[in-house]
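P.,

For your records, the input lines for the assembly:
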Amino acid sequence: MNEARPLVEIAGATVRFGAFAALDSVDFRMFPGEVHSLMGENGAGKSTLIKALTGALALDEGTLVLDGKTRHFTRPRDAQDAGISTVYQEVDLLDNLSVAENVLLGREPRRWGLIDTTAMRAEAARVLSDLGLDIDPASRLGSHPLAVQQLVAIARATSADVKVLVLDEPTSSLDLDEVAELFRVIRDLKERGVAILFVSHFLDQVYEMSDRITVLRDGALVGEYLTTQLLRIDLVKKMLGREVAEIAPRERVVEPEVPVEAVLSARGLTRAPGMVEADVDLAEGEVLGVAGLLGSGRTELARLLTGVDKPQAGIIRIDDTEERLDSPRRAMQLGVVYSSENRRTEGIIGGLSIQDNIILALQAQQGTWRRIRGEAARELATSWIEALGIKPADPDAPARTLSGGNQQKVLLARLLALSPRVLVLDEPTRGIDVGAKVEVQKLVGEMADNGLSVVFISAELEEVLRVGDRVAVVREGRVAETLASESLNPDTLMALVAQPDLPEA
Amino acid sequence: MTAQTLEAPKTSSPGAIKQFAARHASVLPTLAAIVILVIVLIGAQVEFGNFLTARNMSALLLDNAYLMVLAVGMTFVIVTGGIDLSVGSVMAFTGILGSSMLASGTPVWIVIPAMLGGGAAIGTLIGVLVQYFNVQPFIASLAGLFLGRGLAYVVSLSSVRVENEGILWLQTTRFYLGDWYITPTGIIALLVVAIGAITMAWTRFGRTVYAIGGSEQSARLMGLSVARTKVAVYVISGLCGGLAGLLLTAYSGAGYPRNGIGTELDVIACVVIGGTLLTGGRGYVLGSMIGVFVFGTIKTIISFMGAEQSWTHIIVGALLLLFIVVQRAIVARSDRNT
Amino acid sequence: MKLVKSRLFWPAMALVTLLVVNIVVNPNFARITMRDGQLYGAMVDILRQSAPLMLVALGMTLVIATRGIDLSVGAIMAVSGAVALTIIDGSGDPDNVGTVAIAIGVAVLVSLVLGVWNGFLVSVLGIQPIIATLVLMLAGRGVALLITGGFITTVNSDPLSYIASGYLTLLPFAFFISVAVIAVIALLERRTALGMLTEAVGINPEASRLAGVRSRGIVWGAYIASGVLAGVAGIIYASNIKAADANAAGYLIELYAILAVVLGGTSLMGGKFSIAGTVIGVLTVQTLDSTILFFGVPSAQSPVFFAVVVIIVVLVQSPRVHAWGRKVGAMFRSSKETPRDGTPPGGATATSAPVATKPEHKEVSA
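Structure tokens returned:
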């Protein structure tokens, strides 16, 4: 490999949103003809770094050197002109136009001022066949499956003079054959000396494709490694990091391995490709931790259990009765409630007050006409504000003004006000400060002690172990295994999350 | 085209059908409009026996020339995913403006550019509000509607007759071919359709219009000039409004501030019936022309039957609904595919 | 300061300013006379004439709160008026209160069905509100014309005329209709959870679904309410001109209604809505209309003024203008503060000034 001079060199990159640094003086480099993987969990700063590289965001501090020249990208066009092309997970082409147009629009051949359609199709066909692709350039892009559209996007990216190609989660919705085709194209481009930035949460693919790995965590650089010298288990360790245990493990109130009478039990829950044949049992007063990497299917599992997404196959029993949870509303009636990982878009109603947010679900269950009266609503809201320590303790403050941790508590209050039996929490501690994190963990423990069953999803393995009585490991769209927390430690769990048949580190 | 890409479809005929579908699926709504037009025409001929005559068909173009011009402009706007409610009142404003200027003795070579410029100015206002001030197209063009209608009455509260020979020539001259005839207004309308169709199909501007309708974000990432194009489509629509004002003035021999009330709805209906998706991204200028012919034919049939003209709007409304529901189904299906 | 921050402050200020301008220019504007125990005057007229717009705008407020829009209200007004007057016209006894009541009942029922239809297209078939209501906007007037047989049906019916022109003790009966509708909606908002759930659906449909809110029913209900209110408005309009004019009834009213809603501080993006704001907005639009007339401008030309008002309102709401406002404000502040601060320009404090933007950074090349 050409170690002579990096093609891209980013030094001290910092991007701030208000007081929050999404990227904190990160160094990053890429060599020509290499596949470089960028790894990290949610909020690690991956997408911020990509945006800085591709001109979608300007750096607040730091320098970007491309091919020996310092660059300042203020818009995506600048980066494209400099030879940095990006293919996003969501194909950002135009499915109402032809394949040829999608490859060439913006630099299409013209004759007498008009677009020369014939020449354009021939040129597009040449670009496509250079990549070994047989796609009819005259066909409408939208008539092709997503995988083909992705390849067309790469064709567009490479039809110009491309030096750096950024592939952001290119494989997340492809099947195995399609991935193989994509990898063939990537290797081809690598041969031509293109530097490829590869972002994927599939560790297999990262190890198959990349020469070098850069790991980010919480907006900071963890390190840059040669793929051959980094064990998977170490990679996962570096991605997830470690946190000092803030509280002692709570006392177990149930026998972990034997959920004798399951409150909720699911068999064969399937909604491809996110989650396949999931089995889950949940006893009364039990906390089931769910451990899995981003994209492993952990969120899909939560949504299937709570009626947010309808399963394609599988059944859910509640108290041994088979139930159809075909909407969140129905699930709530059965006592199964869900808090989304996306607090702002799927949780809080930002424009409404704390009080309205807290009573919303209860009100929805009571029906539109039977309003929870003023004093009752106020009492309900203040009692939850007090019980969960929501700040500010002003029931009339708009929910959007709260910090992440307090928004999470408002969501919890909304769900707990329903007196549920099963509580499914998707990353309830993500993006909130350490103090609030501990409080949420404590709350979960207390609720379980009161007989509530909880499914607790988190990217932080120590947290999952600390809170969960048992832990379900989710990997590549499957519930791989369910084990008692006592039988695990963070290292063994990490090994399970990363790869099952890996030798113990 | 390279041999490689031609090989695949040659192998089997289902492949050819599939290839046609892959290339031209978006033409289907327009084909449907043509089918509807043919059915309506044949039905009318069978019913009345004297419907499909050269005279009748020539009159169809003559009577709807202004609508056709408006439909071309509207197609540009709707394909970007916008809407222009102002066209009817812009047409009324420019029409009465031109008539009044002529009545006060202004030479025609000043009057016509003034009419076109007036339309384009209102279009520019709408475009700038939409693009630079993030105003919803619906609201911005609503302001244009109010403005145009109000200005029409500011120019004159009552109708103004036109006696300029140059303007009247546009309507009265008839070039005959057998029993078929065409007036200069008809020629202008067809020219506008042709220019519009070529622009949409074979210029970067036209393809950018489609790109914006497909995904504004993607169009921007592709480095296309989104802002300029988005303003331009409203300017074009305004310009077409001005031209339609000229054609309608020639047609009716007068400017009238109450002209074109509700015309924006007729135009939108014609464009949608012609196969343009109201959500943007798909549609054809030629389709809009077909849509105008469907509209005009229904109008003619109803006057043949001696029925209430209000049936026109009911039938067109029903057709509009049919197309919207079908489009919705198509969109829902293609959403599932991807 | 709390008063200024209230969402109703600026809409109310606009209305008060408009009224003051009128009174200053023409003191007669404020004069209210009492005749036969009934009040007369320009302001009373505004209350009376605003009734149809009031009803339509209130319905529109509910629809807009759900992130929708209802373009068909004018057409529904035309249909409703046509239905009612055709029934009264066809009956032997147009002065019979029972006949008029039945006619109104049928007309409102028809309007309700039209509202159900709009709501079905939007909430069940998932068609964009603008497009879905466009269908009825287009076809509705045609239907109204069919009902009246293409003519303007004129009716002499005392009970009908009373609706728009009659007085109930001191004030016009039409004003009491407005008050009653405002009261019913305010009561529904207070006494049921409709207001809160509507706002939740309008602000964040997905989060509302996850919270178990039945958004389909709420959206559907808003269109039904809008249809019914437009139907009543159509009857008031017909009563006022003593005729069913399928072309003129409710012409452009959807646009005035949207304007009134926006003037009242409800965002077109849905969510938080204000019934009181809409009431103020309607009175503002109606007063503006009277003002324009009063200044001797022919009523046909008044759309120009409304166009200007619409443009001003959307510009004030536009993010770009807000950014300009902040920039100007910041420049104003920083130019005042920097010298007092004593630090040289470009010194350490410069980074804290909100105007310091990214392009001004000078990179040090290595």
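Two observations worth noting. The first strand of chain B starts at residue 160 and ends at 161. The interface with chain A takes residues 1-2, 4-5, 8-9, 19, 21-26, 198, 202-204, 207, 210-211, 213-215, 217-224, 281-282, 334, 337-338 of chain B (CB under 8 Å).

Regards
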